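User: Could you check the structure of this?
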Amino acid sequence: MPDFYHVDRVTERLKPGQIIECIFAKSAIKDKTNRAEIYTSMFPDGVTYHGWNYFLNDKREGPDQDLLGMIEVLAEFIRRSYYPEKISRFQSFFACKTIQDAERFISRYPVKTLEGDIYRGDIWLVRCDKVSFEGDMTFLGLGDCWLDAITKLHLYWTGKIGENPLIEVLLKPPIIIVEKVKSLHNYT
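Assistant: Sure, the predicted structure tokens are below.
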């Protein structure tokens, strides 16, 4: 089983030996109109924590959560329309192939706390049977207009590599959490 490196920015969420699965089934949704029905038709196997955070979480907090959520939803609709054979980002667990790429991810995409401090996260060694998709995450952004965003997402889903790439691997659960290899959860 191959090893990968996952950056976790949610303190105390992962534990050695933990198995990550798709969760957050229909019963997890507080139904307003027919949300549960639509969700179940889209994701009958559930979603990962990432999917819950950007697709189901109605208590989004933190800088840029709505913008990031819009990009994720747009990425999902591009995938469903043009690349349905690819794994959904909402049903994926994200990692890098090397610890150096995980460190580059932390440096390139810092997360700010509600107080404005930079939060780095922890790097975990994880195992999964196989990579479902590899993409250059530098294409996950807006550009100057929505057409740029759509164009960039097509580049992402076709596996193109940009000028200064950062490759992420989308792993299909189950994922085994092995151990924390680097702790960077202090604020700087």
